[in-house]
Fold this sequence. Notes:
Mean pLDDT of chain A: 92
Distance between the termini of chain B: 32 Å
Strand order of the largest sheet of chain A: 2-1-5-7-9-11-13-15-17-19
Helix content of chain B: 25-40%
Structural class of chain A: alpha/beta
Distance between the termini of chain A: 39 Å
Helix content of chain A: 10-25%
Oligomer: heterodimer
Number of helices of chain A: 9
Strand content of chain A: 35-45%
Strand order of the largest sheet of chain B: 6-9-10-3-11-12
Amino acid sequence: MNCGEEYIELFEKNRELIDKPCTRKLNDEREKAFISFKAQGFPGIKDENWLHTNVAKKFATDYGMDLARKANTNEVRNSFTCDVPNLKTFKGYIVNDSFVAADNGGKQLPQGVFIGSINSFAESHAELIDRYYNTLAQKGDSVVQFNTSFTQECIVLYIPKNTVIEETIQIVAFLQTNVDILTNRRMLVIMEENSSASLLLCDHSSTDKKSLSTEVTEIFMGGGASLDLYELEETTDSNTRLGNLFVKQEHDSRFNHCNITLTNGFTRNYVEVVLDGEGAETNINGLAIGDKHQHIDNRTLVDHRKGHCTSNELYKYILDEDSTGVFAGKMLIRTDAQQTVSQQTNRNLCLTSCAHMYAQPQLEIYADDVKCSHGSTVGQLDESALFYMQQRGIPADEARHLLMYAFAGEVTDNIKLEALRERLHILVEKRFRGELNHCKRCNLCK
Amino acid sequence: MENLLEIKNLHATIDGKEILKGINLTIKAGEVHAIMGPNGSGKSTLSNVLVGHPAYTVTEGEIIYKGKNLLELSPEDRSHEGLFLSFQYPVEIPGVSITNFMRAAINAKREYLGQEPMNATEFLKMMREKRAMVNLDSKLANRSVNEGFSGGEKKRNEIFQMAMLEPTLSILDETDSGLDIDALRIVAEGVNKLKREDTSSIVITHYQRLLDYIKPDIVHILYKGKIVKTAGPELVMELEERGYDWIKNEN
């Protein structure tokens, strides 16, 4: 078992170096998180939450960590574009785990909005950082504690009261390294009352070196705030992504999440949404496409704490070859959450007999006046539909693509930004046709 | 007249069980053949074997279609060669719109025939015209294939697809089942409008009523996997009066 000794040693030896570029709050929280991590080590597969995802093994690689913050972030500014045609975005980059502002052609975000490093945000808004940073993540598991221990940078997006950001904010993460690398990415989103935004996070962490990134994002939504969050992973076999998203919603806020794993190596995403005010609404959607030995684990918790809230969840997996999917979704309806309307759906396609899907839908209800449902299925493509299409002249491979595309469409159709939706339709189609860096021989890519 | 389809001594099995036990049938260009028979006699098996359903295995015999060995062609190539089956139970395909479905089908056929893909305007015009032919609601065209359609709408959608693909040999497998009399008339009129001098049909049915609208040239009775009787349209009336028992008793 990997207890993380080498990381503990690294941390203790380099504490000063780690602390150096950071604002006080980061270092205070680091102190506590490290104690917690040291006590626990990495989660083992005996831990029910990590039953099918052997993460400790992934940390065994001798990765480099850029604790001295030496990454050259200047060169890459604007050298990488992840343009979604017809979608105008306000961009920023994450290179390894450093934030790099992009040249947005003189475009300005509305007054009072901040996007940038926590270390500079602290100069003007220390009290906000104290109030929010690591408050949701502090009870996270040992991977979250690991992130809090090592993180030296945190991107802050702060949107003041009643501010509406029309343009989508897009943050593109990628790697620049010539050694195996471990990065710790962190983000804090503070949305005050009645603010509104849409955020697109593209993870392009691809390199021929091994890479692992721990990611922790905390989102606070004030009353009536509205956020559309799109996360798109387009990484490669050698990448490990351990995402952790914590969202807290106050009354009448609305959170839409669409989490798409298009290509990856080994991924585990944890999503936790707390509905902490009446009338809040949350919609969380996920699509995972796997082949080869890819591993995609999505774990979600929707925590209904107050009454009259609504949650909808839809996660779909398409697994080919030897890929593995894990879905564990829990809906927790607490005693005070009367009049909750909550729905969870998980549908999975296994295209080969070697693809594995582990599905664990969970419903825990402590209130007595609620409307909740959940359902989960694992199956193959409908043979009778395939034959019907062939009879009409559609070649077998194309018929298969149409069915897979239709299956995925239920998730991508929920994307509100038209340009992004169109783009994703094309990307999903390309993925199935094997035009996105992946293999040519499997069913998925034929 | 030229033979469009020749079935010789056809034997076929499903899950190891023999259903067709030596079918012989010849269809000339322009002819309408009705195949009748009691439940379980092999009518649907015959239509499935003709279009190449993978669940059925041909163990003996041959099928020559347009001078080609039909059994060597994939289901999609059979379609491109003008074979069309109107399914007894049309399949629902959630998430695939009729428009996308038909576009994929039409363009695959054109590619097979060495033609350029149809442009969008042309295609939509064709959709509109053919839809009108079978009174298919324009709203249905944007919906997923057969999903949530009523029985009548599903059958009309089959005939609409037939109109789009303009087959040489169409097989109507119990197209009348589940239709009320008005829907039956609309479907039958659609089929009749599509009839050309060089196209043929196989109409599979239990009852006379569909054959009141679609007039067969030749009527066959299939029983226990064999064609036991072949005659002119007068046989339909005889069956209607006497039922199938006399056929069963004779065989």
